[in-house]
Amino acid sequence: MNSITTQPGTALVTGASSGIGAVYADRLARRGHDLILVARDRSRLEAVAQTLREQTGVRVETVIADLGQRADLAAVETQLRGDERIGILVNNAGVAVTGAMIAADPDRLEAMLQLNSIVPTRLALAAAEGFIAQQSGAIINIASVTALLPERFNGVYSGSKAYLINFSQALQEELRPHGVRVQAVLPGATRTAIWGAAVDHLPKEMLMEVDEMVDAALAGLDQGELISIPSLPDPADWQAYTAARLQMAPRLSLNRAAPRYKQ
């Protein structure tokens, strides 16, 4: 299949030293993409890069950056704007704060919002500048199914992922005329370090391995999906969810309040 991920171009992947980011790096390298891998942990990132160089023969550059730090984030933004080789951005870097919001450290919640929402926004917009000029490219934002179930999860975490879905949908509308693809990926429970040992207590039928998740997400990108939910068997469920939301649109802003508020 001739898709954006089988065409030449360098992919920049954030949070690439382990988990989802490392598997994206592996899969994109095996599709022939050179890589720019971004993460904080130098030793782990260099190990991933060296393995991919040896196994795939692609060019792999590493950028040691803490995207929660303004200067490091700005440096990656600059690279996205100025490096014409880059054709794919995988916005994967993120963090989770679990437990009750009212018991959480507000500073940790703020840092999570910065990394999960602000950082991918700035990187996506930086990448979009170059992609518009090239009239091609793909931006992949890693969200989460928790965005669809705010009653069951930490609302700040799920809210940060819901933001990514909203952002991705709106960004695709702006970028479609320029030949640029946007995809939001909504993994369910996935065996990654972000959740620690908590995943070991989940029923095995709920827990997906990282390789399975990334392979499904890339297949969704190949198939032209804007929203990819790797574990959802029937895409009609998402289509129905979207249709129900859009059906309300004509009644969301009217010049009179609804009658039930006037009783």
UniProtKB/TrEMBL annotation:
GO terms for molecular function: oxidoreductase activity. It comes from the Bacteria. Keywords: Fatty acid biosynthesis, Fatty acid metabolism, Lipid biosynthesis, Lipid metabolism, NADP, Oxidoreductase. Pathway: Lipid metabolism; fatty acid biosynthesis. GO terms for biological process: fatty acid elongation. CDD domains: SDR_c. Belongs to the short-chain dehydrogenases/reductases (SDR) family. PANTHER family: HYDROXYSTEROID DEHYDROGENASE-LIKE PROTEIN 1, VERY-LONG-CHAIN 3-OXOOACYL-COA REDUCTASE. This is SDR family oxidoreductase. It comes from Stagnimonas aquatica.
